[in-house]
Amino acid sequence: MTTPRPRPEVDALPGYRLAQADVAVKLNQNECPYDVPAEMKEEILQRLRQAPWNRYPPMRAESAREAVARACAVPPDWVLLTNGSNEAILALVQTFAAGGTVVLPEPGYSMAAPLAVVGGARVHPVRLREDLTLDVGALARAARELDAALVFLASPNNPTGQAVPPHELEELLEAFSGPVVVDEAYWGFCPWTALPLLERYPHLVVLRTASKAFGLAGARVGWLVAHPEVVAAVAKAVPPYNVDLFGQAAVEVMARRLDLVGERVRQVVAEREYLWQALRGMGVQVYPSQANFLLMRVEDARETFLRLVERGVLVRDVSRYPMLENCLRVTVGSREENEAFLAALRAAREVAV
Ligand code: PMP
């Protein structure tokens, strides 16, 4: 007897990997730098204390879903809550694209292609433009030529940080009539959203997560916004009770506090501009960003990454992605974290000279 053989395409996947280091300043996962305020944690805990733990949670997270739908200004049946937005990506592939082709940008969100493969689809990557913006025309052409089952893109794109302007998204939606998934994980930090396009384009699906703007990466909640027929179809690919009691309580409490979310997001955006200017001032090549992270190109990414770790700062080395030679991605942190990062980078560059 031997251990069972994985499907060859799954066997070939490297699996999710992330460089870890025990550092004081963690700027490698695009998390929110501010924890949930104590009084909100108390409110969430209060809900958990009152709920029976021996029972399954509300099946479709009705109350949380209502709060999230209100925050997105859509009716509740336009929303499906998932266990992080990664679960939504997998469910969308399984619903629309198993056995077919998923067209996506490269470099793009690192989990999109493996999730597509696990979901039973083939992946066709389309390169970004030289300036690292999404080439919407090329995506549309590939999708049509290959008769793609689904187009996936993140806007803002990760790890590059730039968002697709609505008129370009519209071009794609006009040119391709299959499902178009726009992953807005970094909604909030970007001045525009694809949500208004839903009215005219029933083949659009917008994905969001509570991990970034809501600052709830620990709760593992995401959601998709789409026409009710699409929501009902994808719901069949999602296991019941996929969002647990904690996730439901946390996202509901936060979705009802958009004032606080807005305040924290504004701080992050102000810090992003501060960091961007500071990096430019140091002569570092840094790309525009509508997200909560910046992509920069340095002399020697590997060496710089290691020197930053030595100084207690962890960023993401993305230099092995296509087109991103010598690039590092840094999450926008609190002012103290950003100062610590800038000081470490200055010191690292001095050593290099
Ligand atoms: N989409 C994009 C573009 C992301 O960058 C991330 C996380 N880094 C996710 C989705 C995953 O989010 P979640 O925590 O909701 O699974």
Q: Fraction of residues in helices?
A: 25-40%
The kinds of small molecule bound in this structure are: 4'-deoxy-4'-aminopyridoxal-5'-phosphate
For the sheet with most strands, the description reads: 7 strands, mixed
Estimate the global geometry from the Cα principal axes.
Answer: globular
Task: Name the poorly predicted regions.
Answer: none
Largest sheet strand order: 2-8-7-6-5-3-4
SSE topology string:
HEHHEHEHEHEHEEEHHHEEHEEEH
> What is the terminal-to-terminal distance?
59 Å
The oligomeric state is: single chain
Mean pLDDT score, rounded?
Answer: 96
Structural class: alpha/beta
| Radius of gyration of CA atoms, rounded to a whole number | 20 Å
The total of helices stands at 12
* β-strand amount: 15-25%
Number of strands: 13
Describe, in plain words, how this protein is organized in 3D.
The protein is 39% helix and 15% strand. It contains twelve helices and 13 strands. The chain has helices spanning 8-11, 38-50, 62-71, 84-96, 112-118, 136-145, 166-175, 228-235, 245-255, 258-281, 301-310, 335-352; strands at 25-26, 79-82, 101-106, 122-127, 150-154, 180-183, 204-209, 222-225, 285-286, 293-297, 313-314, 316-317, 327-331. Strand 9 and strand 10 form a beta hairpin. The radius of gyration is 20 Å and the shape is globular. The relative contact order is 0.16. Bound molecules: 4'-deoxy-4'-aminopyridoxal-5'-phosphate.
List strands and helices in order, with pairings.
Blueprint: H1 8-11, E1 25-26, H2 38-50, H3 62-71, E2 79-82, H4 84-96, E3 101-106, H5 112-118, E4 122-127, H6 136-145, E5 150-154, H7 166-175, E6 180-183, E7 204-209, E8 222-225, H8 228-235, H9 245-255, H10 258-281, E9 285-286, E10 293-297, H11 301-310, E11 313-314, E12 316-317, E13 327-331, H12 335-352
Parallel strand pairs: 1-11, 3-4, 3-5, 5-6, 6-7
Antiparallel strand pairs: 2-8, 7-8, 9-10, 10-13, 12-13
Helix pairs in contact: 2-9, 3-9, 4-5, 6-7
The chain binds 4'-deoxy-4'-aminopyridoxal-5'-phosphate.
